[in-house]
Specification:
Length: about 750
């Protein structure tokens, strides 16, 4: 995106922390010049223009002297802003007052109470810009404003001076002159059409939203920003230059219960910080990113939490704010640098929002959707945009990343089909956030990231009415995200051939929209059923997913979806997820190891014959081999894995039960379980003891520990079993064994 270079800083200046609120925004609209408080009849702005800072919307009568509009100022009977009262008349207009002051040799003119004209050669020290109040129509021309009580509209024949570093208090708007404003590179960014627009309305709206620069243009357009836009880098055009082929790095910075069932029970334990650090430092490593690149992928989507950028002590995240955000942000920085080192583009996905936009655990809070709740709606949206801006400043503008962050997703999976959160509400959020993120980009960035917006589980075409606002969404600035899963009702009831047909049909369904705006499938998987995706019971149907017939189907299903999501103008895909704790059909890493996914997504075994109506052939074009035909006993290794088991001689009352020991060999590991049971309500109560030998990870130093667990319900371990069990999970994850309760 081209832009005008090196504009001076407008005033007033925002507070020192304004960078974390709402900065300047780069947009493209329908104008060619931006007038910084010049009158349309002056030589400073002779074409469509915008007035920045305080400027009246009226057009004063012709006059010999050039008068600059200084806007609305405070005034009082005890301390007048201008010293000389010239006249008070029922025929007063802006022009008549300016003429009288000019003829009397004054350089300032002011109008008050609709008919009083004041003159002077300086503004008294007590006079100050006012964001509102100059609303009284002039007695001689009702289309003009002539101040009001204790408010005076000021004009001057002296053009205001300004510098790059002028600082004024918030609300002290000053005239800044007339500026050119190219369509492709706005001088002032965020726009908000106002009916019956006046400078007062524009400034009042600007101040309420927290901006420090305002500009009015084309009659009804009001622009906001924090500074005049500098020359911006080119657009990233994510998914346009190259089809996106990627994976989500799920369960890393947004922990999901079903993907890592143990850690989800941690709650507010005293060891939370060390446990989270352990998770952030081990769930994904540089080796994971290297493997992703080696599999022919070009993108990682990194879900992140809003509390990384906008933590609140009123929310339980990060120990109610006790854990410094610098810790997770440090790991996020390492992730981006690792992606850069392995040639992977990054899509940063804001996966959570205050109040939750979906009521899912992955949305930050399970339960009710509270994002648009009346009590906190404005605060929630402001905090979300603040988080996005900070993300942009930290991860897009920093030159060390070399422009590897090609896209930012504004929020993940808002549910917009219930009364709790409407499509129009999210559309309004998208509009503001889109402009805010783009406006947070500075000249130090390599690219302006593509703004990705989720479809809210509505039809893609239902968003046409919003994306048609080309003044808000200029071509090449945004992308729509759709998530396509076939594991939920009713699609989970399809036959294998039905799943294939559904996948192939998505090529045209998505293509009908991607022909007019980019569309990416930001989440999808190989799953076609789900016993219970809210927790670890997904493992209950694992063994049904690995027969020879099923292996062939899963490979065909993968190719059908890839073909559809890359078809024609469609912009590509990002699989969910790179790895999970138990299920291969949700794990790109494990599915690739199994052979359900090829070693490079461009490799095709199900190429359909010419003229076929299907996007894949019914049988593979060459023999396929798979690592196993039964589910491996250990996620990390299918060789030599061991599992502890619990046997019982149940009675109607609590009894002591046997203990069993199993080990890989005498020098590796053993897991010893001893329990006593009470079969009431399927609850096991007792003690679980795990013994690990020298082969355990270095961070797991004790050779043996005893952990009491009471109660253990189903497959869920209560939080008093941590941090020991958390370490054990990773021990099992590394392939040294696993435990079964």
């Amino acid at each position: 995106m081209s832009s005008m270079a090196d504009f001076p800083q407008l005033l007033p200046e925002a507070p020192p922390d304004s960078a974390h609120f709402l900065p300047r925004i780069a947009v493209s609209m329908l104008a060619s010049l931006i007038a910084v408080l010049a009158l349309s009849g002056s030589s400073a702005c002779a074409a469509p223009a915008a007035a920045i800072a305080l400027q009246q919307a009226q057009q004063p009568e012709s006059r010999a002297a050039t008068w600059y509009n200084l806007g609305c100022y405070t005034d009082s009977t005890s301390t007048r802003t201008l010293s000389k009262k010239i006249h008070s008349s029922s025929s007063t207009t802006v022009g008549s007052c300016q003429t009288k002051c000019s003829n009397a040799g004054y350089t300032y003119a002011g109008l008050e109470y609709g008919k009083v004209c004041w003159c002077g050669n300086k503004i008294a020290s007590m006079g100050a810009p006012a964001s509102s109040g100059c609303t009284t129509s002039c007695a001689g021309n009702a289309s003009q404003q002539c101040g009001s009580g204790n408010r005076i509209n000021l004009y001057s024949t002296i053009a205001p001076s300004m510098s790059n570093n002028t600082a004024k208090a918030r609300g002290s708007f000053k005239y800044a002159g007339c500026w050119t404003d190219p369509i492709s590179a706005r001088s002032v960014s965020f726009t908000n059409p106002l009916s019956s627009n006046t400078i007062e309305k524009c400034l009042s709206s600007c101040q309420q939203k927290g901006y420090s620069i305002a500009g009015a243009e084309n009659g009804n357009e009001c622009f906001y920003s924090f500074k005049v836009i500098e020359k911006l880098p080119p657009p990233a055009k994510f998914g346009v230059r190259t089809k996106v082929r990627g994976v989500n790095l799920g369960n890393w910075f947004v922990i999901e219960a079903w993907m890592n069932p143990g850690i989800a029970d941690l709650g507010g334990t005293s060891t939370l910080q060390s446990l989270l650090i352990d998770h952030w430092s081990t769930w994904m490593t540089d080796d994971d990113l290297a493997q992703i690149a080696a599999l022919g992928l070009n993108t990682v989507r990194i879900p992140v939490s809003h509390w990384f950028f906008n933590v609140s002590t009123a929310e339980p995240y990060l120990g109610y704010g006790a854990i410094p955000t610098s810790i997770p942000l440090g790991y996020l920085s390492q992730a981006i640098l690792s992606a850069k080192n392995h040639g992977l583009d990054v899509l940063l996905d804001l996966h959570t929002a205050p109040g939750s936009v979906n009521g899912f655990d992955n949305g930050g809070r399970q339960g009710a959707i509270g994002y648009a709740a009346a009590l906190n709606a404005t605060q929630n949206m402001t905090r979300t945009i603040s988080a996005l801006i900070t993300m942009t400043q930290l991860d897009v503008n920093d030159p060390q990343y070399g422009g590897i962050v090609k896209a930012i997703e504004l929020i993940n999976e808002p549910i917009t089909y219930t009364s709790a959160l409407s499509q129009s509400y999210i559309a309004n959020f998208y509009k503001q956030a889109h402009l805010a993120v783009r406006g947070a980009v500075t000249g130090s960035a390599s690219y302006v990231p593509t703004i990705v917006m989720h479809y809210g589980f509505q039809s893609l075409s239902s968003w046409d009415q919003y994306y048609s606002e080309t003044s808000t969404y200029p071509s090449g600035t945004c992308m729509q995200d759709t998530h396509q899963y076939q594991a939920w009702v009713p699609l989970n009831n399809l036959t294998p051939s039905g799943h294939i047909s559904k996948a192939c049909d998505l090529a045209s369904t998505i293509g009908s929209t991607s022909s007019s705006r980019p569309v990416i499938v930001g989440e999808w998987s190989l799953a076609t059923n789900c016993t219970n995706c809210s927790y670890a019971t997904m493992a209950d149907n694992i063994n049904s997913l690995n027969s020879p017939t099923w292996n062939i189907f899963v490979r065909q299903f993968f190719e059908a979806q890839v073909n559809a999501y890359e078809s024609g103008t469609n912009n590509g895909w990002i699989f969910w997820s790179w790895k999970t704790f138990s299920r291969r059909d949700w794990s790109y890493k494990d599915a690739a190891q199994q052979g359900s996914i090829p070693s490079n997504p461009t490799q095709k075994a199900f190429v359909p014959p010419s003229g076929s109506s299907s996007c894949v052939s019914s049988q593979p074009n060459y023999p396929l081999t798979f690592a196993t035909t039964t589910y491996p006993s250990s996620r990390g290794s299918s060789t030599g894995a061991t599992a502890a088991s619990v046997s019982s001689n149940s009675t109607n009352s609590s009894t002591a039960i046997t203990s069993e020991t199993s080990s890989r060999d005498s020098t590796t590991s053993s897991i010893v379980v001893s329990t006593s049971t009470n079969t009431t309500n399927s609850t096991v109560e007792g003690a679980v003891r795990f013994r690990l030998a020298a082969v355990s990870p270095a961070s797991f130093s004790p050779a043996a520990q005893v952990v009491s667990v009471a109660p253990i319900t189903g497959n869920r371990l209560r939080q008093n079993a941590f941090p020991f069990l958390h370490k054990l999970i990773y021990f099992a994850e590394l392939g040294y064994g696993r435990f079964i309760l």
